[in-house]
Amino acid sequence: MSLVELICPRCGKGLAPRQGQVIHACASCGASCEAVAGQGLIPVARQIVRPRIAPRSGVSLVLMPVWCITVHRESLGEVADRMAAEIRVPATGIARMPLLVAAARRLTAAAAPRENWDGVEAIVDPAEIDAETAFAIAESVALRHVTGWPRERDLESVQIPLGGAQLLDWPCAVEGTDLVELVGGLSMPAALGENIGPRDQRAALASSIKGLNLPGKFSPTHASS
Amino acid sequence: MNAPSTVALPEGMACLRCGGGLDSTVDESLLHCRYCGTDHQVLEEESVPASMPARWDSSRDAREALRSHLRERGIKKSVTAEVDLHWLVFWRIRAKLVGWQFYQKRPDQPARSEKREDGSERTVSLMPAERVEELVARDVDVTLPGCDSRAFDLVGISDRVDSVEWVPFSSGRTGEMSHVASVAVPRRVALRRAELLRKGGLVPRGATGAVQRLSLLRSRSRLLYYPVWRLHFTVSGRPGIANIDAVRSKVLGGQCVGPMRSPAPGWYAAAGAAGWMAGIHPALAAFSLAGWVLHRGGKGGASGGPGDWGRWVSEELGPHLSRPVRLDQ
Fold first, then answer.
1. Model-level pTM?
2. Do A37 and B26 touch (CB under 8 A)?
3. Which pLDDT band, with edges at 50, 70 and 90, does B318 fall under?
4. pLDDT above 50: residue A223
5. Are strands A162-175 and A187-189 parallel, antiparallel or unpaired?
6. What ipTM was predicted for this assembly?
7. Which residue has the higher pLDDT, B124 or B91?
8. How many Å apart are CA A131 and CA B283, to the nearest integer?
9. Interface contact B16-A5, CB threshold 8 A
10. B41: distance to nearest CA of chain A, Å?
11. Which of chain B's residues have a Cβ under 8 Å away from the Cβ of A133?
12. Which is higher by pLDDT, B290 or B85?
């Protein structure tokens, strides 16, 4: 057993973790890191996803951490063209596994094209799922992504060719009990993020969102009232 | 900038920043320094954290629990000869189980009887079995024995784990005369058992042809040391043994030999009265008297010759018969 001091490696502030948190995010400088035995806190690279839909006025805007795991479809033979190119697993909501897996299946099935949103300064939130757990969930999602595949007798033995994992911050609007992701417009239960309590990013992202000229209206001033 | 630091933990945990004491939080993997407020994360490697209850009952409480338990079973007098505290070890495995399972299940429908040509009946189900494909995403929280706890009448402690306040295990707190059980079930085996236990419960009753592909995620294992008092005692000179839950002061099990009321005095009286009525009372009265004498001799514990006969009479016809008493709940 070893002990890791939870002090931000970049700015030296305390990381103030919450229960179940495995990827820490510094509330001061935005650095993200993970505790690894024998190595202490190691940085975790994150990338914000560019929204394609403007959030409605008056709703909170959050960045939900999501693991994206690539699938080497070319080695899947007959189902290669029907398998998802990447499996998207929300990195929060570990206490609500059925919701989490259902959300991962829907996010993956929607397959909304995504692109990085560079040059955006936002303080991201911590995550409850590490890459190892995300891989296991991704495998389960991939196993039944294609209808009727694998066959029942192959279920126990089939190998899912998963590639690398990347932690993304997915823009979402909080609408009541729903979390509407702003890339494909998919709705997920907001309860997924309740333990992390994702911060409202309206003020931080206002100018960046306006610069995107997205369809729909977005008014951060109205929203904050 | 502060360099992240990791240290192997000795028995006492201390803040890496100020050396102060660390308090546990709701999340067992997070510790908070009560002096400088720095948070720490505990990482499991080869060694496993171990816990013990913050408090447990004294041997006096255990004796009292036994006395009260015996009184409820009609045993008023007992003498405790020896008291030992045993620390039994359990694995607590917490994890997530994710994956898929297929199975065949017949819809709930009453079967009907059909007559064959030869007049006999056969049961026919109207609906064919249907194939069920199910996504599994569940929590695993099981407590499994890490030693032979059955010998102490304690199969599991799942029902009491959450009601006990656990603190880090320290061999210095277990008591001088206590016996700490060795971990006889390796962690890997415990994890596998937890997985199988949980997997087994996933397929509904009556389902057939189950195929599963499940992964155990984020497994966290912890050793729980649970105290049990073992009391050696005697009832009317005969030995007994009792195992007592040292946290809840309840008798878990054990056995002894206890007395039981016998109808023998009534038989002696009836024999005397019948002899009087039949006019052969001197013979029956003599027989009754001889029986009584032998009975007294048997109770006195003499062995061989008439003493053995007396013991037999004492056991079979005496006013008190001994009987085995099981001390389970």
1. 0.69
2. no
3. low
4. no
5. unpaired
6. 0.75
7. B91
8. 95
9. yes
10. 5
11. 96, 217-218
12. B85
List beta partners, residue B92: B143, B222
**Min Cα separation B133/chain A (Å):** 10
Contact B98 A137 (CB under 8 A): yes
Query: Is the N-terminal amide bond of A150 cis, ω within 30° of 0?
Result: yes
Chain B: residues touching A (Cβ < 8 Å): 1-9, 13, 16-17, 25-27, 30-31, 37-45, 47-49, 96, 98-100, 102, 133, 135, 137-139, 211-213, 215, 217-218
What is the C-alpha separation between B165 and B170, in angstroms, rounded? 15
Least confidently predicted of A150-159, B114-123, B145-154, B319-328: B319-328
Instruction: Verify whether the Cβ–Cβ distance B31 to A3 is below 8 Å.
Output: yes
Are A144 and B133 inside 8 Å of each other by CB? yes
Structure tokens at B67: 């006395």
Q: Give the type of residue at A207.
A: S
Q: Which residues contact B246 (CB under 8 A, 6 or more apart)?
A: B56, B57, B62, B85, B227, B228, B229
Strands (E), A80-182: 86-90, 162-175, 178-181
Check pLDDT > 80 for residue B122: no
Per-residue confidence band for B312, with pLDDT thresholds at 50, 70 and 90: low
**Closest chain B CA to residue A95:** B139
Q: How far is A210 from chain B (nearest CA, A)?
A: 35
- Confidence band of B305 (pLDDT split at 50, 70, 90): low
